[in-house]
Specification:
transmembrane helix, SID1-like protein, mainly alpha, glycoprotein, signal, globular, double-stranded RNA binding
C-alpha cells in the first residue's frame, strides 16, 4: 500500500459516485442533458483536490475546502429546489428583494416538502464538516469519499421520498434493486471498516493489519469492499 495505488482506486470511487448522481438526475429529468466538458472538468478538479488534500493536508486547506463544499451544497440545493430554473447572476439580489416586497407570505416556501428534505441534507453536510474538524475521519481522501457516498445516498433517498409524497407507484423491480443495493452497501461498509492493510504506514507497519485471505485464499477484505 502506498500513496499511488490509494489514489488510483479511490479516484474511481469518486467518479462512480458523481456519475451515479448525474444518472439519477438525468433519469428524473430526461429533457436536461449534462455538459460533458463540464462534468469531466469537475471530475478532474475533484481528483486533483483529493490528491492535494492527502499530500498537503492542513487546517488552511480544510477551511478552504469546507467553504467550497458548503457553497456548492447551497447552490445545488437551490438548483434542485427550483428544478434547474434558478440562476445566480447580478440580478439575483433584485429578484430576491422584489419577491420579499410583493409576495403575500415571502417566508413561506413554495415547495415545503422539497424544502424540508433539502434542509435535512444541508444540515447533514454541515454536521459532517464539523465532525471531521473535531474527530477526523481519517485522512482527507477518506473524508472526501465519505462526502460523496453520503450525498449519493441522500440524493437517492430524496427522489424516493418525493415519489412517495407525490403518490407515485413504486414497482417491484426498483424496490428489489433498492433492497439489494442496501444489502451490498452495508456489507461493503463492513469490509471497508475491517481493513487488512494501511497505505498511510510503512510496509512493515501495514503488515500488522494483515489477516488470512477471506475468499479462495487470495482475496482479502479490501477486495470485497471493491467487489461489493
Amino acid at each position: 500500500p502506498n500513496h499511488s495505488n490509494f489514489q488510483f482506486d479511490t479516484s474511481f470511487m469518486y467518479i462512480i459516485c458523481m456519475l451515479s448522481m448525474i444518472k439519477i438526475y438525468q433519469t428524473r429529468h430526461p429533457d436536461i442533458n449534462a455538459n460533458a466538458y463540464l462534468v469531466f472538468g469537475v471530475l478532474a478538479f475533484i481528483i486533483i483536490l483529493g490528491l492535494t488534500g492527502i499530500m498537503y493536508e492542513g487546517p488552511i486547506l480544510f477551511i478552504l475546502f469546507t467553504c467550497l463544499h458548503l457553497i456548492m451544497i447551497f447552490w445545488l440545493s437551490a438548483q434542485i429546489y427550483y428544478m434547474g430554473r434558478w440562476k445566480l447572476d447580478k440580478k439575483t439580489p433584485k429578484r430576491f428583494l422584489n419577491h420579499l416586497m410583493t409576495a403575500p407570505n415571502p417566508c413561506r416556501p413554495k415547495y415545503p416538502n422539497r424544502m424540508v428534505l433539502l434542509s435535512i441534507g444541508i444540515l447533514i453536510n454541515l454536521g459532517l464538516a464539523i465532525s471531521h474538524w473535531i474527530i477526523k475521519f481519517g485522512n482527507f481522501g477518506n473524508y472526501l469519499l465519505i462526502l460523496f457516498m453520503v450525498n449519493l445516498i441522500l440524493y437517492l433517498s430524496f427522489y424516493i421520498v418525493m415519489k412517495l409524497i407525490s403518490k407515485e407507484k413504486l414497482h417491484f423491480w426498483p424496490l428489489l434493486y433498492i433492497l439489494l443495493a442496501m444489502i451490498f452497501w452495508s456489507a461493503s461498509l463492513y469490509f471497508y471498516m475491517h481493513k487488512s492493510s494501511s497505505w498511510t504506514l510503512s510496509a512493515a507497519e501495514s503488515r500488522t493489519y494483515n489477516t488470512p485471505c477471506t475468499f479462495m485464499d487470495f482475496y482479502d477484505n479490501h477486495d470485497f469492499w471493491h467487489f461489493l
